Amino acid sequence: MLDAEFIRARILEALPGSEVDVRDYTGTGDHYEARVVSPDFAGKAMVQQHQLVYAPLQQWLKSGELHALALKTYSPEQWKKLGTR
Known about the structure:
Layout: H1 4-14, E1 19-24, E2 31-37, H2 46-54, H3 58-63, E3 68-74, H4 76-81
Parallel strand pairs: 2-3
Antiparallel strand pairs: 1-2
């Protein structure tokens, strides 16, 4: 079974310097949500941002071990505009 810290570490390996928060939103160990703020997202469409996050997790998504990963992705500029810092 995966855990939030494992998923967070995989995302950080692929997107160093990002701010990543992951939580298990069902308690079943296979449905997670993540908020990722990364400079790598600057100038990219949301679908491209999500592809960058999903890429290091493909093995677990394909196997079904990670059934769902809901994403909220932001560039640092987008995050700052939201006033959440």
